[in-house]
Structures are given as C-alpha cells and as structure tokens.
Amino acid sequence: MLKKLTLATAVSTILMSGSLMAASLTVGFSQIGSESGWRAAETAVSKVEAEKRGVTLKISDAQQKQENQIKAVRSFIAQGVDAIFIAPVVQTGWGPVLEEAKDYGIPVFLLDRGITVEDDSLYMTAVTADNVLEGAVAGKWLIDKVAGKPCNVVELQGTVGASVAIDRKKGFSDTVDTVDNIQIVRTQSGEFTRSKGKEVMESFIKAENNGKNICAVFAHNDDMAIGAIQAIKEAGLKPGSDILIVSIDAVPDIFKAMMSGEANATVELTPNMAGPALDALMAYKDKGTIPPKKIVTESNLYLPADAKSQLEMKKDLGY
Ligand code: AHR
C-alpha cells in the first residue's frame, strides 16, 4: 500500500560514492493518442530518450479523451511511479487529479501542451514551444509572402480546448491583424487529423466560390494541411500556388509536399519533448534542482529550400 508523500522520493534515491544518485526511475506517460504524424514521432522519440537514460517509460494512450488521461494518472499513482508525464489533451480540468499526485509526492511534468491551474506547484515544469510565437511566425511568413496583396485565409484549428490550438490561433490572428490586406474568412477545428482537415477544407472550398476566394490555408498542424492539400487538388486547384499552405510541426510528409510544390511553409515543433523533461526529472532526483516553470523548445520556420535536408535529417533521427 502506498503512503502519501515522501515514500516515492525516498525509495528513488540511493547513496553512491558519497553523493545522491537517482536509482533507476520509472515514469508513467499519459499520451494523448495518435492523431498526427507529429504525435507518433513524439511517442517514438520519448521511448528512445527514456532508453538512452535507463528510465523505464510506461505509456498510456488516452485516445483523445481527458477522462482516460485522468484514469491513467490515477493508475500511475497507484503503481508508485517516480514521476508522471502528461501531454494534456485540453487545457482545463486538471486540478483535482494533480492534487492527488502531489499528495503522493509524485512530480508531474507536462509535455508539448500547457494547462491552466490555480496552483502552479501542481506540476514541476512544462516542456513546450511558445505556441503563440509559432502562430505569429506563420502569420509573419504570410504577410511577407503576399506582400500587400489582398488575401483571404481559411484556418484549420487544432483540438478544441487544447492550449496549442488556442495559442497558435492567437499568435496568427494578432499578427495578420496588423495588416489590412489579410483577412481570416473561415475558421474551424480539424481536430489535428488529416481526415478531418480534409473534410473541413472541402466545406471551406464549397463556401468560398469553389476555393477561388481562398488565398491561403493556415493549419494548426501539418496533418490537417495535408488533408487540405488533398481537398484542394480534388477541387481542381493547385495547392502551393493557387492556394498557399502554411502549417506547424515540420513532419516529413509536409517536406515531401513542399518538394512537390504543394506546401509553402511550416513552423517546427520538435517531437523531442521527453528528453528535456527527463533531464529535468533526473536533475531533480539527483540534486534537488527545481527546473524553470517552462522549458521552451525552438520554433524555426522551414521553407521548400529546406525540405530535402530536413527530410534527410529526420530520417537520420528516426522520426
Ligand atoms: O500538441 C502538439 C500538437 O498535437 C501538434 O502540433 C499536433 O500535430 C499534435 O496533434
């Protein structure tokens, strides 16, 4: 039977060579699901990063449901893991279950999405990109690309209530709102999936004079952009030229689309969120180091000229 507080911490450290070193750690990871190529890469990379550090990683797939994530967290608490990683599907509703983890002294690390809680001591750190910045980088690219010409944009949002969807939307719209020539004429969730991205794009095309009124797509992830590309082609238009495509993630498939001239720009989201979280966990267990509340990953912009080298690099990294 687990005892509240300190037990997990106490048994996870052993005295070696006069200094405290982390004993072999077990981490429970509540993953959102497998909605996108990026998500699949993040899961794969997390396993590799854990193995590199000799950490046992138990992954639970929540199939896009917060209730499944909450159950997984409770199960990890019952198993007495050393830490819990959560990629939170939505931003709100985490307080009570994180209180439970805190009561048992189990540190929680957030990966790739943020949460809003009254007490931010309920989690140790969040490893994420600055997603407002990611939206802003996409918006700035579009402003430069259209160079003052009128441009109607359709937006494919990510999962409703996900921090990344909220932040990317804000970053993009705040940026394009600084110019008069760009208007977001339609916006809807494509749930971060290729199939829903295609379905929503088809409805946008129908509503906008068979796509002729659309100048650009801003998709909150590459998978929805790829779905949109399919819809544009089926409507007899050319993605990448008749309709510009800008998205987020930088997964291999968007670089392939760039090489075929069908996508124009993507903003990187590294799938390696687990590596920095594991480093922070180990420093905390070994030396009691408290990490910064946010560990921010890079948000570089990639264009067709980068596609070949990016594809090769990702292949080498095994993404
Ligand atoms: O939280 C990160 C987002 O989730 C990625 O951009 C998207 O592809 C994924 O589904």
Automatic annotation (TrEMBL):
Which parts of the chain span the membrane according to its record? none
Stretch forming the signal peptide: 1-22
Periplasmic binding protein domain spans which residues? 28-277
Localization, per the record, is:
Cell envelope
Superkingdom classification of source: Bacteria
Which SUPFAM superfamilies does this chain map to? Periplasmic binding protein-like I (SSF53822)
Q: Which UniProt keywords apply?
A: Signal
UniProt-listed Gene3D superfamilies? 3.40.50.2300
Query: Its family?
Result: Belongs to the bacterial solute-binding protein 2 family.
NCBIfam families recorded for this chain?
YtfQ_transport
Q: What is this protein called?
A: Autoinducer 2-binding periplasmic protein LuxP
Q: Please name the source species.
A: Vibrio plantisponsor
Encoding gene, per UniProt annotation: ytfQ
